[in-house]
Batch of 3 targets.
Target 1
Amino acid sequence: MNNINQFLLSGALLAFFGLAQPCFAGIETPRIDQRQENQERRIEQGEASGALTNREANRLEHQQMRIARQEEAAKADGVVTAGERARLTHQQNKASRNIARKKHNLRRD
């Protein structure tokens, strides 16, 4: 009888984890995460090369933090909808343009 209970328990656990896995699939945002990393790297590179002032870098980093908070809010309910992904992508597009503009602006000291 003990073997039967173990078999049923292991079957129930496998079924639970097998069914639970698709629920977590909607939370993953690898493209958004990779893009965040790339943009943060661009900001750091710009600051190191002198293309960005400390103030510009701080503002761009703050924008990245806002996007990260929006991503966490989108993930809070367990699913990142297509609309939420689109909004995050739009925000990342804006941030990318801001980084490019600030890195290539002509400052006159």
Target 2
Amino acid sequence: MAKEHEDEFLQDVSLAEEEEYGDEEYTEEELELDALRAERDDLKDRWMRALADAENARKRSDRDRREAENYGGSKLARDLLPVYDNLKRGLEAATDEQREVSAALIEGVELTMREVVNVFKKHGIEPISPEIGERFDPQNHEAMFEAPVPGTKAGDIIQVMTEGFMLHDRLLRPAQVGVSSTPT
């Protein structure tokens, strides 16, 4: 009797395996078809990855090109800022008497200064011109000194030494300022 139950159990296991795995053997064509499907899936995956890499490279090169257009001349622009400063100082230093005597020279310097400003604007260079009494902004200003000045609050700009400049959305040079240190 135990032998009978054992045979039935083994027969049930055998039937269950046939249901799960099947009893049929694969033909050579089916195996080749499965191999071709696997190869197709692998090639499709590689192709999709290559396509994504190409798209990422295109986006990266577009971004690099835009940055080169906008910020490629920043070194030259930085080197021209002292020229602007010197022209401005020269015009500010000219007295009324000197302006009368050398009117043509002063006019030439003013025209040169205007042309420098126009070239700056054409290339996205904008001045940062803080006013006395404005709050010090460490993002755009460089504090050159602190001094207690009556009638001001701590952190107020009390003197502007040089203008700062932005190149599009980047700081090219901070404005150099003196800041009040009077406690509030």
Target 3
Amino acid sequence: MNHIDVTRQGQCIYVRLTGEFARDAAVDMDAVLAAVSGPPTFVLDLANACHLGGPGIAYLIKLQTRLSTLGGALFLRDLSDSVTTELAMRDLSGFFRVVDGWDDDMGEEILPLLAIR
């Protein structure tokens, strides 16, 4: 079971995932993304995510590719220990831009400066 909270400020979409990644989370995130015109910045907070699994990882790869095609960017924020382990096991730790210590009050322009990758 999962829950997502979405906050949007202009082109910046902030999503907090709680629990396991499930198909409904992907559907909800796609719906939010479809409502944005122009190149979006998508911040996915995974501090409370307990499991992504194969479908979640595949969705994140697809989401990053889609955002890149649109001229936008994906940032993963505050990875839980289990998500960090899942990414490392699949050798994807360096594939995503991970941000720690970002607060949405800082603004989206600071994200690339804080990203590990």
